[in-house]
Structures are given as structure tokens and as C-alpha cells.
Amino acid sequence: CEDCGKSLIGECKLHGPLIRAKDRVIPSRARLTLPHYLTLRVLELRAGNQQILGVFAKKVIQKRTQFGPYVGQLSTKLTRYDESRLVLQVLKDGGKYFLDTPNEDCGNWMMFVRLARNQEEQTLVAYQHCGEVYFTTVKPIEPHTELKVWYAADYAKFMEASAVFIKEESDVCSLPPVAKEPVDPWICSSCRSSFATFALLESHQCIHKDRV
């Protein structure tokens, strides 16, 4: 105790316990890799404070936008299985391995993307390229829309899965409504003009460069 100058086992009976300062909690590796125009939302809270998360767009994302590669540990078996996420495998050195993400410090934000239950809600397609897995948008994604993925046709054959995933209505769990967040505009770094979509910002920048 710094007040009475004694070395004690436990708390000082005269001056009481020490004031404990806690370290700041930092996000996991997976959460830190989330692009700025995407956001994580809690869709459900299960027993043991387990959060069911979804990835949502904050701004318009154009069709044919590629994300990746998916970051995970190569493994001969899965240590973490979630029925709402895709099981992913890759071909490396002639062997077939799982892309395993046992915790958030071993992967990137793509581990939070949930699988699409049908073609209507599918916004991403998963495929393998040069031993890595990428997700690419199959249509424009509007703000407040959840990113959901299913296998590309060739990758579905590799994964021995159907090319289209359709879940029976009786098995579909209804999700609670999600409060919408304000949409952030795309802002030009040169003249600070704001635009509703990234495509409009790109075209504006081209005109701006021509003027310069």
C-alpha cells in the first residue's frame, strides 16, 4: 500500500482496494477489415450473449464489385460451423482444404456474410480463383440491404452443392426489422461536392481531371 508503506496480501484494511484501470477494448481483426461503406448489424441475440450479425450496405454498391480474398486458416476439417454461413473450400497443392475461421482474429469481415436462402435475396456470388475465394456482387446493392452470398455454378460443383439454394418457407426464420441508418453521400476530395452513388462520383472526377 502506497499510503501506509506496507506489503500486504490482498486489500489494505485501512485504505481499501486499489483503483483499477481497464484496457480499452479493441475490435477484432475481422471487424477492423470492414470497408467503410459497409456496416455490421446485430440481427439476433442468443443465449450466452452470442450475437448473430449481418453485413449491410451503407451506400449504393455497383454490380460486379469484387470483395476478397476471403481470409481463413487452411484446415482439413472445420472447427467452427454456422448454418447461416457458407462452407468454403479451396484447392491448394493438389489438396482440398477448408477455409476455417475459428474466431474473429483469424479472418476478415467476409466471415460475417450470411448465405442467401433464395435467388431473390442473393447479392453476392462466391467463387475460387488462384487458390483464393472471392465474393462479387451480382446486382446493384441499395443502402440498408444485407449482403448475402451463394456459390457460383462452377464453385458449387467443386463444393458438391446445388447451384441455387432454396430453403423451404417453413424453415425460414423471420428476422426483426432493422432500423435504417442515414445514408452517407459520396464526397469529392477535390471540390467537396456530394453524390448519391459511387458511379456519379467517378464520372465527376473524370470531368474534374479533364478541366485541370
Automatic annotation (TrEMBL):
Keywords, in A-Z order: Metal-binding, Transcription, Transcription regulation, Zinc, Zinc-finger
GO CC terms of this entry: nucleus
C2H2-type domain sequence ranges: 186-212
Protein origin, superkingdom: Eukaryota
Statement: the UniProt record of this protein carries the keyword Transcription: yes
SET domain ranges (all copies): 38-152
KW Mitochondrion (keyword) present: no
Any single biological process term in GO: regulation of gene expression
Protein name according to UniProt: PRD15 protein
